[in-house]
Amino acid sequence: MGMKFRSGGFLTTVQDAGRTGYQQFGVPVSGAMDPRSFVLGNLLVGNDEGEASLEITLMGPMVEFTAANVVALTGADLSATLNGVPMPRYRAVLVKPGDLLAFGMQKSGCRAYLAAAGGFDIEPVMGSRSTYLKAKIGGLQGRKLGKDDFLGFRAPAATLPNLDLRAVDPEDFSASERVLRVVLGPQDDAFTEDGRKTFLSGTYTVTNQSDRMGSRLEGPVVEHVKDGNIISDGISFGAVQIPSEGKPIIMLADRQTTGGYTKIANVITVDLPRITQSKPGDIIRFEAVSIEEAQELYLAQRTRFEELRRSFEEKRGDARAPVAPGIALAALGLSGGEERVFHVELDGHDYRCVVREIKS
């Protein structure tokens, strides 16, 4: 029981935290392009942070659920609807058999993530369920999802602790101009002083030659001391390569494991969503920060993730206590217009009840 695809959308793939430990053999990491949206989705549905989700690019699929489960949609706003009604983003939502999830016009951002409680029933390849399209490994037969495909749920959950409280503020990806904070290096000394100034002061545009491997930018030429060639070395997520032609390329999730072009800087981890949620035509500028600042921002993000997990899982008083017929408001501890939320099980059905004192 899981999800049946009536259509696959533009590019819908299974992605998790990535295929680590195999770059020495030439196997790219892959994984989610927007790590923050990806993690938030899993936190909302009670999964481990690295559990596989659907990555949905620009134009989403249409899927029918064949089992009850808790899901969450994060990342780009692609006008998602559930049974024809707008589906909230960044909130845990209970879906039932027969429910239909569809997507409409892209409003902001580029990639959305659909997390499902318990994850998807897909065999890992080299320790990961991520799809690497070029080698056709991982995910569902190493390819994008399409019409009549089926993804099973591995361990679906019809409810979760504090289900009604599992929500965070949606991220806004509507800005068409983004500043990417970078740590300079490791080959920033391969560029002239004017070249480095150009890189940090110039305005660049995301081109159509951008994909999961890298984002190519058009803009001012960054001047090298000699040229852009080096002995090949490792490439990290967010590395900013600049070949001899002087135009930046930001390396992304499906990047090659090594490369022979100079790298002037690396986008800091917390800013990766700013480039992976950018579309062709969006404007990019760079700002240099210290590695210490980059680390502090990353640790703050990690702390926030842990706080969210604890808040979703901790007991909230008697919020799920059954309500007996005719119970007095005073017994519920209500006063001054307060309200409390209860869940009532009746004839096998779960009802959410809001009890509120109304003064006449």
Automatic annotation (TrEMBL):
InterPro entries: CT_A_B, Cyclophilin-like_dom_sf, PxpC. Keywords: ATP-binding, Hydrolase, Nucleotide-binding. The keyword Nucleotide-binding applies. SUPFAM superfamilies: Cyclophilin-like. Pfam families: CT_A_B. Residues 24-305 form the Carboxyltransferase domain. It comes from the Bacteria. The keyword Hydrolase applies. NCBIfam families: urea_amlyse_rel (TIGR00724). This is Biotin-dependent carboxyltransferase family protein.
